Amino acid sequence: MFNVDHKTLRLSFNEFHGISAKDMPQYGEFCLIELKNGDYTAGEWHPDDYRSKKSTSGKFIRGTADTIGSEEVERWHSLERYDLTECLEDEEIGLINLGPEKEGCRSVQFDGFKSFADRRRPKEEQYCLLIMKDGSLAAGRWNKWRHEAGGVFIYAPALASHSSDKVWAWTPLSTDQIFAAELELENEKKLEKKLNKNPSADPELFKYGMDIDTYYEKALAKLREEFYWATVTMMKKKTPVWQIAPLHGKYVFGQISKNYCDDSDIVTPWTEGTTADEFIDFLCKYTHDTVKNSNPEEKFKFGTDIDVYLEKAFENVKKDYRWLDKKMLKKTWQYDIRRVDGDIEFVRRYWDETEYSVYDVESAEQFIEWVENDYQSTALRENKSVASYEPHFGHIDIYGWNLERYVFHRLRTGDYMVSVTAGDRTTGGSRDFFITPYCFEAKTYEEFLDRYLEIVPAGSFGLGKKELLPDNELKKFLGY
Fold first, then answer.
1. Structural domain harbouring 139
2. What pTM, to 2 d.p., does this model score?
3. Count of domains in the chain?
């Protein structure tokens, strides 16, 4: 790689520009930013009026839902206009000037560079200045991969990122609120781990011992007075299930979830009582409706032959997804009725007979509906897109998520679907919606939209009649 010693390297930024109508970055230019409070970060410039090169109102984007408003910025320095390759190949160089040093100019130096080659990596959510392996400069917020050594620096919406294997060296920029919150969480975890080394147990709370199944069995005996079919297996379908776990140095009845970032346990304690018998009564109330709705006579009202349920689902889907045939269904999930932990269950499996998941449904109709959803997705996968149209839209916030893509597709059979993608700062998702033939029975485009927006409502997915009705290209694409 490069010959310069990154540990002693300094970068001097000497061409800062103030925030003024005559001196703004180009739209989309990625910049080092000095904030008015003296902190340093980076981001991609997006003016509020993208048609004006002189607009000082806007934001520097650091990632999805991660921005710095221009009113917080003192000055900016381009990161895009430099290639350090030639300098980094000279082992004698310890200081690289980015722009000429002039009297009275604003100059800031960064050092303390570290390398992944030295098995060093930033702390989670730390925003860093990067020297890339191609000699360019960049920046981004570090997100480690959960179960691997590497990670990425997120720098733009939709989780656009620089992979760690593309970065030659990095150094932290200033601490911001996101990173500060991550540090506080990390300190809380360390304290919790220390407290939980030798947890105590309240004798009134755990007078029946430290096996959670003992408490479920005692609650089961009470439930069977009302529901003869009740089992512990049914009770534990009400999730999260309750466990006995340490919290703040004491054992508690708690529900355990996993931290998305690092797989650590998050314990939510039971707080509705102080004794073992109160907890047992609570378990009865907590699982009551789940057991009530697990009546096998209602659940398997069409018998225990799985083909009966699958045929009903297939015929229902076939009404709208006319091209669906049973050969396509061999490429998707397979279904069975099996005995699991003593209870008869609907299960879903793929090719491996030994691996399956239980469908927690209350009725035969609900199971059939689940299968229909699977068959609909399979039908769409088998019907390839032959043309597409993407309406134009600006920034749309959907309950904290940002609309990123909204694309109409004409399928091979002449049918239509729409694909919607949205995300927040750290995650995102996509959904496909089939536009049913019923929508196209409308005589006018406006009537079509009324029916279409019942499937993909504006309040949930971003675009409504106000945006779609004036779009003549979309109207033409849909055949109106």
1. 10-172
2. 0.54
3. 4
Residue 36: how many CB atoms within 10 A of its CB?
11
Cβ-based burial of 181 (10 A; exposed 0-12, middle 13-18, buried ≥19): exposed
d(CA 75, CA 105): 12
Q: Render pLDDT for 157-184 as a digit per residue (tens, 0 to 9).
A: 877 899 999 999 999 999 999 999 989 9
For every residue of 256-320, which 3-state class applies, written as one string?
EEECCCCCCEEEEECCCCCCHHHHHHHHHHHHHHHHHCCCHHHHCCCCCCHHHHHHHHHHHHHCC
Asked if pLDDT for residue 201 goes beyond 90, the answer is yes
Tokens 């600006």 belong to which residue?
Answer: 394
pLDDT of residue 148: 66
User: Comparing C-alpha atoms, which of 11, 164, 172, 165 is closest to residue 88?
Assistant: 11
Residue 388 reports pLDDT greater than 90? yes
Instruction: Look at 263 and 67; give whichever has higher pLDDT.
Output: 67
Cis-peptide into 269, omega within 30 deg: no
285 within a domain of the structure (yes/no): yes
Task: Out of 260, 293, 326, pick the residue that ends a domain.
Answer: 293
Instruction: Measure the CA–CA gap between 295 and 368, rounded to whole angstroms.
Output: 17
d(CA 132, CA 115): 11
Q: Exposed, middle or buried, 287 (CB in 10 Å: 0-12/13-18/19+)?
A: buried
Do 341 and 470 have their domain in common? no
- Split at pLDDT 50, 70, 90, the class of 260 is low
CB neighbour list of residue 339: distance below 8 Å, 6 or more residues apart = 345
Tokens 């109508």 appear where?
21
Centre a 10 Å sphere on the Cβ of residue 207 and count the other Cβ atoms it contains. 11
